[in-house]
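Dear colleague,

As promised, here are the two records you asked about, laid out in our usual form so they can be pasted straight into your sheet.

NAME FIELD: protein one
SEQUENCE, THEN STRUCTURE:
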Amino acid sequence: MASQSPKSPSHTFMVGQIPVTTIETTTVPPQTTVTPPQTTTTPPQSSPHASSSSKTPSPPKKQKAKAKKKVMYVEPISSAPPLESQIIKPSSSSSSKKKIEYPLQKDTQYPAVFAPGGIKHHPNFSSKTIPADIKLGSNNFMAADAIPEGTPGYGPIFRYLWNSPVSHALSLNTSRMYNHLLQEFWWTAAYDSSTQCIEGTVLRGEKVISIDADVVRDSLQLNYLKKGEKFVLPATTDEWKQVLLDVGYNYHIKDEDKRSKVPNTPRKKDLPGVYHYLLANVIQCLGGNSGSFDQANHYNMQIFEALVTGRKIDFAAVIFQNMVNKVTHSPRVTTVPFSRFFSFIIKKQLGNNVYHQEGYAFQFSKAL
């Protein structure tokens, strides 16, 4: 084992409200002698396209010591509980994984026949849309329930999320997904601005499912205010853009003018470490997008800003407005959004009358 190098100099600065320490370290070059697993010499890492040809592989080349690089370590934020605090676990926790993992509804990719009978689809769908087009994609994940290994400094932000007002919404496990219930609900869902409610049918029109901000708040346990407290308005676009700049958005861009520009749909990859992780959880676990999870919409950013600054917003109202945006968009996408939240609400309103054709348990899959 190599001897320990002397303690490297460190510098502390503020990123938003979080003190960040950069420690300059010199990467130690790897050993030049490689012990082969059996009798075959292991080719060097610099030759990824090595084939099983008869050519004798060249010996491993000496790697030069890399230049000094800055490694970011984050001190615990003031609102995070101490290290010994118990982490709030989801109802069905998994064993610790080596990489960041998000429970993925693999059952939503299972081919299922959706037969609505005489139930007509909502007019926001394209006139060419048929029942077979309505599908369940990968969205609205459950959050990882263990601190990712090999990520120095991520412990505080992980503990903060699991003790934040959205912890239950992150961990809620519907246990089983019922394809035909979600497909018919999305096939028929409509928003009534007079009642501020989304309504759709299930069981071939036999049951009406009604969702409003109060239903979302109750289902996801988002009424976190203490007695006498009131919700405040969520951040405006200018406010959450300023917070993004405060926490280091565009940190990798050297041009000062370009660095100060924030798009209306920010990308999580343009945020430094812990904030990238925070926004990833907001987009993938509290949002309804399918496909690309890099860009955040206005509602994602209102949640992100509130979690960073401590603004006491009505998270349920923001999530509900995001749902309304999906329902009212024309043409409506054929992939069911918010599959985890919708599934839980539908099952809750059906009670014991959950008649299903197919249901599949959650499985785990690597994401991010």
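NAME FIELD: protein two
SEQUENCE, THEN STRUCTURE:
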Amino acid sequence: MWTGIDWLRQCFCGNSARASTSVSLSARRVRQCADGSTIEFDFGTFDSWCVYVTRPGRERQAPRDAQYFADLKQLHGQHPRILDDFIEVFTRTTKEIDAALLARISEIASQYPPDVRPDVEVLLTTLYAAMIAEENRVNAPLGRRIKRLGVHQVLVEGMRVEDAARFSRGKPWRVLEELCVARGF
């Protein structure tokens, strides 16, 4: 998984958040995964809730929605239960990092075949952190539901990954709210 375009070269937080191998003094660690990957919050273009991922041997990067939607879609093709696992994480996400939920993500990942376990753990933890960030963003009335909408559009409705990643841009939040409610979240 995660071959081709290196998803960690894309920036979730805007163009000014760049790759960095240096340690940030302001970074707040979400977790270190079993494979040594680190997921953390730090300053990005908009606020201090930018999600950064550092995979072993790679530079620290802020992933984009389009890449983790693509990774979910690829994983869903082989393991359809990833949608239910994502929904479980979504349902339990709040504004705070929950150690019990991080442990649950590890448990979920351990139920996948060994060749995808590390990717599942990093992907679900990254999405978890992105949803926490959405819950904490100022002027983000949809909170984590904006991520659920994108995942739903890709995995359930079959929308193209790039279209789902751009779907909410420029749309009034009330329109997006109606779309979420119509889909049951």
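A couple of things worth noting about protein two: The longest strand covers residues 28-32. The CA atoms of residues 17 and 44 lie 5 Å apart.

Best,
R.
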